[in-house]
Amino acid sequence: MPLYAIICKDKPGALETRLATRPTHLDYLNNSPNLKLAGALLDDDGNPIGSIIVVEAEDKATAQAQADNDPFTAAGVFESVEVHFWRLAIGSL
Predict the structure, then answer these.
(1) Which of 25, 28, 60, 87 is least crowded, fewest Cβ atoms below 10 Å from its Cβ?
(2) Per the database record, which ranges form the YCII-related domain (predicted)?
């Protein structure tokens, strides 16, 4: 099944909302059977400014649904969300 990278960038000033929503977001990810990996993008001070999530999905619409249903999306944390077909070249999942 194909892999998709979901690249999310936070809105300016969204840190407080992100931190408040984080437990629900992590619960959502931990209960996502198609999740391969996930983590925060960090600024130079180590503060989260976005997310990268890799999912295995039948098609782009299914990967987009993963992003659309994320609690961070519902809370308005993200300024932008991109979903791209992704191929692992080096390393392993």
Answers:
(1) 87
(2) 3-86
- Residue 43's SS3 state is coil
Q: Which residue has the tokens 């519902």?
A: 74
The CA-to-CA distance between both ends of the chain, in Å, stands at 14
Average pLDDT, integer, range 21-31: 97
* pTM greater than 0.90 (yes/no): yes
Pairing mode, if any, of strands 35-42 and 78-86? unpaired
Tokens of 14: 């969204």
Phi–psi pair at 74, nearest 5 degrees: -60, -35
